């Protein structure tokens, strides 16, 4: 792949190290040149920034877009401190322009590995800059207070489906009994305590990391395997994603007091180029505590799943709705909806939930179950769960050694895949 050094050659005569179609330095210069050309082309629109923006392409000297007067100009130097500083790969400018990269993903994805690439200053300016480069700049979502009604917890699953279609989310009430809530809550809390004691807890939610996330729940107790038999899955997932949808992640999220809101995002952010016309996934979030606006309810922009919609600032939940509901409920939302973990402003307690996220069968799973599934868990898996985890052929996908007939299970044995027909045939 581009940017990855080829490995060693095994076969004499097949050494391609001296063969090249392009030179990296030439490509970088071409990317920089096109980025500058795009920015100059878009200057009439960039006046909307009404700010002073500094842009650097890697280690190259920064240049500036001065749009403070409402008319944008490119400058080599300025005396004033920029409102926003942006260090970005020049090819991302082209990808924004070509509609191949969603701005809120492209602007921040490299910051996970390189802090210098994190925009600084007024972040909404950087977001709007990237939006204005795209073929169809998004519009802000409608704020929650502008709706006559919002989804409420209900036992009517047809109403939940209608709410998902209209608002991007619905809330199913009494999905778990009080006893089932207690069992699952205990399972989550014991696993969380074990990971903290072992020093392997994965935390976020601010400088002190008050939130805790548990990953790959399929490995972490029979309780979590049993939850995969819940009929709410069969009611919602095939209806929305088709019969072959697969689990992309199976996790728990514990929001504790003192956290900060998660940045707003959609659950199909990894689908690039960005596609808004089709939902690729659906999340079922089981509430193991009464979830309120105060203790960290998931924040959502109702109706933000339809159309070219994106929030101008992903670091605030102002204008969103809190998806509050009693313990035992399930928040069901589709993957285009803009949402985030809310702030827990209680002084004590915690807000534990289990998230079961499905994607269409042709989308690569976030969790690589073929490698992360523990060997001792494999014998416990029913055919139902194996299908959910992707150990099943659908159409021309998921085979081993070219065998991809519809309806074959991939049997995992000593790390080597082999096939068997469904129903033991």
Explain what the structure shows.
- It is a single chain.
- The mean pLDDT is 94.
- Strand 7 (202-204) and strand 8 (211-214) form a beta hairpin.
- The chain is globular.
- It has helices at 24-41, 43-46, 90-97, 103-106, 123-133, 157-167, 178-197, 222-227, 231-241, 369-372, 383-389, and strands at residues 52-56, 63-66, 73-75, 84-87, 120-121, 169-172, 202-204, 211-214, 246-255, 281-287, 299-300, 321-322, 330-334, 339-340, 351-359, 408-413, 416-421.
- By secondary structure, the protein is of the alpha+beta class.
- The protein has three domains: 27-133, SCP2 sterol-binding domain (Nonspecific Lipid-transfer Protein, Chain A); 144-359, q2cbj1_9rhob like domain (Jelly Rolls); 371-424, no CATH class.
- The chain has a seven-stranded antiparallel beta sheet. The protein has a five-stranded mixed beta sheet with strand order 3-2-1-4-5, covered by helices on one side.
């Amino acid at each position: 792949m581009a940017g990855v050094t080829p490995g060693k050659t095994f076969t004499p005569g097949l050494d391609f190290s001296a063969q090249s179609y392009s030179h990296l330095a030439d490509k970088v210069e071409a990317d920089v040149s096109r980025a500058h050309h795009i920015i100059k082309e878009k200057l009439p629109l960039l006046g909307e920034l009404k700010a002073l923006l500094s842009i650097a392409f890697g280690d190259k000297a920064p240049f500036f877009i001065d749009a403070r007067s409402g008319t944008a100009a490119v400058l080599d130097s300025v005396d004033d401190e920029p409102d926003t500083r942006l260090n970005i790969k020049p090819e991302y400018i082209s990808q924004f322009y070509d509609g191949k990269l969603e701005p809120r993903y492209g602007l921040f994805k490299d910051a996970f590995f390189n802090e210098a690439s994190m925009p600084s200053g007024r972040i909404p300016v950087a977001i709007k800059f990237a939006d204005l480069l795209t073929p169809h700049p998004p519009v802000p979502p409608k704020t929650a207070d502008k709706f006559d009604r919002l989804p409420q917890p209900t036992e009517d699953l047809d109403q939940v489906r209608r709410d998902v279609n209209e608002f991007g989310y619905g809330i199913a009430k009494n999905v778990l009994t009080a006893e089932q809530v207690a069992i699952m809550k205990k399972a989550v809390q014991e696993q969380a305590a074990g990971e903290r004691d072992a020093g392997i807890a994965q935390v976020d939610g601010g400088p002190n990391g008050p939130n805790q996330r548990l990953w790959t729940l399929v490995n972490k107790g029979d309780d979590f395997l049993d939850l995969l038999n819940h009929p709410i899955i069969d009611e919602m997932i095939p209806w929305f994603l088709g019969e072959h949808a697969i689990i992309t992640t199976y996790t728990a999220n514990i929001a504790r007091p003192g956290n900060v809101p998660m940045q707003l995002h959609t659950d199909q952010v990894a689908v690039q180029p960005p596609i808004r016309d089709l939902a690729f996934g659906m999340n079922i979030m089981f509430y193991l505590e009464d979830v309120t606006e105060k203790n960290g309810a998931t924040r959502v922009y109702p109706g933000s799943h339809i159309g070219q919609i994106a929030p101008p600032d992903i670091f605030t939940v102002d204008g969103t709705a809190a998806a509050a509901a009693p313990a035992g409920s399930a928040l069901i939302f589709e993957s285009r909806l803009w949402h985030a973990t809310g702030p827990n402003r209680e002084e004590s307690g915690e807000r534990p939930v289990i998230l079961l996220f499905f994607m269409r069968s042709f989308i690569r799973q976030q969790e690589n179950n073929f490698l992360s599934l523990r060997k001792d868990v494999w014998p416990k898996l029913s055919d139902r769960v194996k299908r959910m985890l992707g150990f099943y052929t659908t159409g021309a996908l998921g085979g081993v050694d070219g065998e991809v007939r519809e309806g074959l299970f991939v049997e995992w044995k000593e790390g080597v895949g082999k096939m068997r027909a469904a129903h033991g045939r």
